[in-house]
Amino acid sequence: MDAITSTQAWVNKVIVKYNICPFARREVEAGSIRYIEETNSEVEAVLERLTEEWQHLDQHPETETTLLILSEACTDFDAFLDCVYLANHYLQMNRYEGVYQLAHFHPDYCFEGDPEEAASNYSNRSPYPTLHIIRESSMERAIAAHPDVDAIPERNIEFLNKKGSPFFADLLASCMLSK
After folding, report:
1. How far is Cα 161 from Cα 43, in angstroms, rounded to an integer?
2. What distance in Å separates the CA atoms of residue 157 and residue 151, rounded to the nearest whole number?
3. Where are the alpha helices (H) located in the chain, listed in sequence order?
4. CA distance linking residue 81 with residue 78, whole number of Å
5. Tens digit of pLDDT for each residue in 46-91?
6. Based on the structure, what is the number of domains in the chain?
């Protein structure tokens, strides 16, 4: 299965179905998520693709957000975190800070201080390393409309722990096999 199809399956089968991100369902239903695969393994190519995606979003207001899927780059989690750091710096250098923000997901995502096997890590585990480009203005509106945005991480951790790591490991693996 290709990286885009696997990522779409993950968004639908994990993020939306289990309401990990309460803002995602609306965009899935509206068809306003852009899925792009970057096959180059070089970080410089990833940064260039980010620039292209910011420009695309600038020119296409009907596209709410982009998931930039790194199918060949940053397979190592620490290398991915370095790439995220550079991507955020690149965002600032290109004067997109305050316009867009980056969220990030990785198959081996591990929150600092948590054991690798902790179920809570699955809130940020995805089939492939992924940079999520989010419009700041849209995020501000969504947060303002949500009754308790501060409770989202707590709710997710409680839910993920209740279901357990094996459940989410199997679910994530199934996204790689879905058609």
Report:
1. 34
2. 10
3. 3-10, 24-30, 43-59, 77-93, 136-145, 152-163, 165-177
4. 5
5. 999 999 999 999 999 999 999 999 999 999 999 999 999 999 999 9
6. 1
Token pair, residue 104, equals 């990030």
40-to-7, 47, 82, 141, 161 alpha-carbon distances in Å: 18, 11, 16, 34, 35
pLDDT at position 179 is 46
Alpha helix segments (H runs only) across 105-151: 136-145
pTM above 0.90, yes or no: yes
Instruction: Assess contact for 71 and 3: CB atoms under 8 A.
Output: yes
**178 confidence band (pLDDT: 50, 70, 90):** low
Q: Mean of the pLDDT values across residues 32-57?
A: 97
Cα 69 to Cα 72: distance, rounded to the nearest angstrom: 9
> What are the Cα distances from residue 89, in Å, to 20, 83, 144?
27, 10, 27
Which residue segment(s) compose the domain that 61 sits in?
3-177
Helices 152-163 and 165-177: angle between axes, nearest 10 degrees: 90
- Taking alpha carbons only, the member of 41, 37, 62 closest to residue 52 is 37
58: closest CA among 88, 114, 99, 19?
A: 99
Cβ 146 vs Cβ 19: under 8 Å: no
